[in-house]
Amino acid sequence: MNPNSANAARVLVTGGAGYIGAHCAVALLDAGYDVTLVDDLSRGHLSLVDGVRSITGVDVDFRRIDIRDVSGLTACLVETRPACVLHLAGLKVIAESQRDPVLYFDVNVGGTVALLSAMTAAGVSRLVFSSSASVYSAQAPLPVAEDALVAAQHPYAATKLAVEQMLSDIATADERWCFASLRYFNPLGAHPSAFIGEVPPADATNLMPSLLATVLGRRDHLTIYGRGCATPDGSPMRDFIHVMDLAEGHVSAVNYVVSSAGGTHQVFNLGTGRGTTVLALVAAMARVHGAPVPVVIEAPRPGDLPVSCACVHRATNVLRWRAARDVTTMCADALRWERRRLMVPAP
Ligand code: NAD
Hints:
Elements: E1 10-14, H1 19-30, E2 34-39, H2 46-56, E3 61-64, H3 70-80, E4 84-87, H4 94-99, H5 101-122, E5 126-132, H6 155-173, E6 178-184, E7 186-188, H7 207-215, E8 222-225, E9 237-238, E10 240-242, H8 243-259, E11 264-270, E12 276-277, H9 278-289, E13 295-298, H10 313-319, H11 327-342
Parallel strand pairs: 1-2, 1-4, 2-3, 4-5, 5-6, 6-11, 7-10, 8-13
Antiparallel strand pairs: 9-12
Helix pairs in contact: 1-2, 1-8, 3-5, 5-6, 9-11
The structure holds nicotinamide-adenine-dinucleotide (NAD).
């Protein structure tokens, strides 16, 4: 029970033991919602649920359920009666989606169909969905607006587009439903308490885990993929967004779907609207850490864009939300979390 608000409305968060789900849980509890976290723990961690409890002082309700289990989910929804579902459960590794596309369609698309079936049975009709900026075509003009051309380059993005299309078709056919899809740009960082953050696999190749491993001496250099880009320092440019800003954007999206008339599916970019080069991010981390970070620059991998940046007008105007934290804060919070997670003492 959330002590911030008596009789608070409840939000059920799928993927609630994951990186973004745990931060959303904190932001929802801070905003006065109650939460139920659902996760099958295939990629999530109970330690993150405990971290949410430590930060908020709330004995958060956690259920271990696979979202493809319609009867398990239905029972949970009937019991907890959420005003809204925040649907983050899914698989997110692009290379894995290319190796095992059927698994990705099963979990990301089949899992969403199962969730919608359970919501139908339980009479819950508001849902916010985790989508991704990877759905945009490489030809989309910058900054990328929500109505820009989409084109999935890999099965992971195809699963996100398939779900978005499904939500649009359902909202058009049945006006009881109200959906929002949030296309995240590049979430980084951790809660400033260092009780929750990203728990990457040991062989992770994505930027922040690789940067932290380099800073903490577990790798001898950071490889940056992309040289000669049309950016001030030639390295790729991204729209990095602090995970707590992203989480607060979810609270705004929940407020939006809970108060909207049915029959709608609206898509929102969640980014800062500002591009930062990868070398500028590395420089920010070096300042926070107090030592240079060795880098090796290599050719881009297939599908890597030189520049990506969100147009955030729709989120600003409709959700009344805007990202506030800068890249230095993202680096400082990520490093504080990683030191605590790996029990590396501060210098
Ligand atoms: P994560 O892997 O940390 O969290 C996803 C959670 O979903 C995990 O806890 C996992 O155990 C759970 N899950 C997976 N399959 C499940 C199933 N069948 N039933 C129940 N739970 C299941 O990833 P994250 O970074 O927190 O991402 C959350 C969502 O945001 C994902 O849908 C992802 O595609 C999307 N997204 C993430 C990023 C990013 O950079 N992190 C960017 C764009 C979109």
